[in-house]
Amino acid sequence: MTPLKDFRPPLAAILRGLDERRAGEVGALLFGAGFRILEVPLNRPGALECIRTLVGIAPSDALVGGGTMLSVADVDAVHEAGGRLMVSPNCNPAVIRHAVAKGMYTAPGIATPTEAFTALDAGAHALKLFPAESLGLRGLKALLSVLPAGISVWPVGGVTPESIAPWLRAGASGFGIGGQLFRPEMSLPSVADAAQSFLAAWRVAAR
């Protein structure tokens, strides 16, 4: 299984509140810009329909799935919709194991070493450091000092183009990007501009 950190660029677009009527155009824009990981959180109406649409237009090297996946039933629903990415804000071993058993990439949310090791023991492929803006660079460095080498940790929450370089220097493997990239009220040109800003920041920081 390809590690999540090996997706390039390792930037996950978090499309919270995406309307199913716009899913195709927003997804096509982001895929065309270069994003390869798209996540639709389940705590908004129409999320599963959006996932189905995005899966239908995704390039062969892309990964589409759900966020805010809190239960085994959520895993089953996203998998049935074609999603192969499981993201959550919390660490629930039963949900992680169920997603792993279905062949999904799993990136559960963690904020402490205890949660991190619990997630890894359940088979998590990457760790979502959340809320990153509260835990900060020092929190990431401290966490990485006790984790096995090579574990992918993705800051999520408050990530901006300007913060990508400092996070990478602190040891981040990738990022989940939400409201700075997409909000339901944003126009397509605004989403396109934001996407290019993040991609440019990543290219410069990853040199």
Structure explained in plain terms:
- By secondary structure, the protein is α/β, with parallel strands linked by helices.
- Helix content is 42%, strand content 16%.
- The chain has helices at 23-33, 47-57, 72-80, 93-101, 113-121, 132-144, 164-170, 188-205, and strands spanning 11-14, 37-41, 63-67, 85-87, 105-107, 109-110, 126-129, 152-155, 175-177.
- The strands form two sheets. Strands 5-4-3-2-1-9 form a six-stranded parallel β-sheet. Strands 6-7-8 form a three-stranded parallel β-sheet.
- Helix 1 (23-33) packs across helix 2 (47-57) and helix 1 (23-33) runs parallel beside helix 8 (188-205).
- The longest helix has 18 residues, at 188-205.
- The protein is globular, with a radius of gyration of 16 Å.
- The protein starts with 10 loop residues before the first strand and ends with a helix.
- The mean pLDDT is 96.
Silhouette: globular
The first-to-last residue Cα distance is 26 Å
- Share of residues in helices: 40-55%
Give me the Rg, rounded. Answer: 16 Å
* H-E order: EHEHEHEHEEHEHEHEH
Strand order of the largest sheet: 5-4-3-2-1-9
Largest sheet: 6 strands, parallel
How much of the residues is beta strand, in percent? 15-25%
The average pLDDT is 96
Report the count of strand segments: 9
Number of helices: 8
Low-confidence stretches: none
- Class derived from helix and strand content: alpha/beta
Oligomeric composition of the shown chains? single chain
